Amino acid sequence: MDIRETLKDKSRIIIKIGSSSLTHPQTGALDLTKLEILIREICNIKNMGKDVILVSSGAIAVGSRSAGFQRKPKKLEEKQACAAIGQAQLMMIYQKLFAEYGHMAAQVLMTKNTITNDESRRNAYNTFQELLKLDAIPIVNENDTVSTYEIQFGDNDTLSALVSSLVGADLLILLSDIDGLFTDDPHRNPDAEFIHVVESLNEDLMKMGKGTTSSVGTGGMSTKLSAARIATSSGADMIIANGKDFHIIHKLLLGENLGTLFLGKKDHTFSLEEYLHSINK
Ligand SMILES: Nc1ncnc2c1ncn2[C@@H]1O[C@H](COP(=O)(O)OP(=O)(O)O)[C@@H](O)[C@H]1O
Ligand SMILES: N[C@@H](CCC(=O)OP(=O)(O)O)C(=O)O
């Protein structure tokens, strides 16, 4: 059987959208046409009886545009203020659009502490389980406004993989401004070649992921590959695909050969506890 065929059977799906996929490149303002499509795609997955969690970036990009910044703010307190403005705007739009299709959006803001502290992690786990039981669509972002080092070191690629591991998702989809993983950053190296499937993430592959040149993105490909390591070793498949047209979501779930597919490990080698121990050392 084609490995992509198995994507039809996924039942707990995390979708991560990067800032660059939510905003107009010329102005940085939200692309409302694209958002309408995103919400329809997600509601349709819910209507199939599957669980969906959306990890949405964009708070700083949207807030900084509203606050009149010409480019991504550099100072920490500026980013935090912009995140506060932008997150509220994003949630207002998500609430409205999901409600139009009869679905409930729920905001979950997390910090690194939510994952590293045993009690907070258990709380977060219980909340996710309950939200999914209630058929709500959790919309996750880092709590950028209050968590200083999150903004400096944090990125939603890693966060989405940790959420994927926490809730036992079977598929993580990262939608970005690029078709998937190339052998090198194609914006800098025109000879870079596209990689369709990654069966095992070795060190050579990890080195292919470079940072970002985008004016709104944060992690680039390197954080997406770290996310792939976490997600696949907790048993989930992961796809990096282009978020320029969100119709790609149902195409991926029908098994179309789009994006880079990272195959989940069958032996579930990832331990959230061990990972937390390693980042706290
Ligand atoms: N090996 C690679 N393959 C593909 N893209 C790469 C690679 N290395 C670095 N990149 C860069 O990563 C960018 C995507 O990351 P980013 O800008 O953070 O987007 P997002 O906001 O979607 O998270 C691409 O536009 C590309 O320039
Ligand atoms: N939490 C931040 C985004 C962090 C992040 O990883 O951004 P991106 O590289 O656009 O996915 C925000 O909402 O602005």
Automatic annotation (TrEMBL):
Organism: Muricoprocola aceti
Family designation: Belongs to the glutamate 5-kinase family.
Localization per record: Cytoplasm
Domain of life: Bacteria
EC code: 2.7.2.11
Binding site for substrate: 57, 144, 156
Reaction equations catalysed: L-glutamate + ATP = L-glutamyl 5-phosphate + ADP
Residue ranges constituting the Aspartate/glutamate/uridylate kinase domain according to the UniProt record: 12-242
Annotated pathway: Amino-acid biosynthesis; L-proline biosynthesis; L-glutamate 5-semialdehyde from L-glutamate: step 1/2
GO molecular function: glutamate 5-kinase activity
Keyword terms: Amino-acid biosynthesis, ATP-binding, Cytoplasm, Kinase, Nucleotide-binding, Proline biosynthesis, Transferase
Entry function: Catalyzes the transfer of a phosphate group to glutamate to form L-glutamate 5-phosphate.
Matches recorded under InterPro entries: AceGlu_kinase-like_sf, Asp/Glu/Uridylate_kinase, G5K_ProB, Glu/AcGlu_kinase, Glu_5kinase, Glu_5kinase/COase_Synthase, Glutamate_5-kinase_CS
Binding site for ATP: 16, 176-177, 218-224
Protein name stated in the entry: Glutamate 5-kinase
Matches recorded under SUPFAM superfamilies: Carbamate kinase-like
